[in-house]
Input
Amino acid sequence: MSLTQSNVSSDWRPKAIVFDLLTALTDSWSLWDASTPSASSAEGRRWRERYLQLTFGAGAYVPYDDLVRQSAEDVGLPLTAATALLRGWDGLQAWPETARVLRVLRERGYKLGVVTNCSKDLGHLAARGVEKVASEGGAGEFLFDAVITAEESGFYKPVKPAYEAVLTLMGVEPSEALFVAGSAGDVEGATNAGMKVVWHNRIGLAKAGEAVPFKEANTLDDTLRDFL
Output
């Protein structure tokens, strides 16, 4: 599905593309599912939805591990689920098309960055995993131009300073950046921060808020097809 913002011209091109990490670039849903006692999507989805409510409602940074544990407890899961999730973090897998899309975008000359609702250690661990996959089969090592976590900025998305922190690192204005959302809250948050937004809505999450993405699709390459 494609939805066009009225203030975006068809020939607009950003200087930078900023990604949500855990849903736009990686399949964190499977990790949540696998960490539940039943290893099921039913338990994993319910837990993840509560986790998203807590992180997107937190505002100023609080320890990420605490939110993971609280969300598990809130939906009736044992704390061993949260422990399994955090211990298995290095098993996060990029979506199948992520590596190719990132390499093509780099070849097109875009600056590429990540802003993630995560702790510093876990956020950079996940980002390095994506960089490693994107480097394989390419012409050289792939590295993001900027990676910033909620712990480093001091704020969880969708608070505006969370987005502003990565733009400052990349040296671009909000009007010069495209944000690739992975969850509904990011569509609203990044729009309010002044960026154009596309939504990689892999699992068909419901819309939240009034913001409309420039484009919405269920694969990363389709989401960014206008810029590849």
Observations:
- The beta strands are 16-20, 111-116, 146-149, 177-181, 196-200, 215-217.
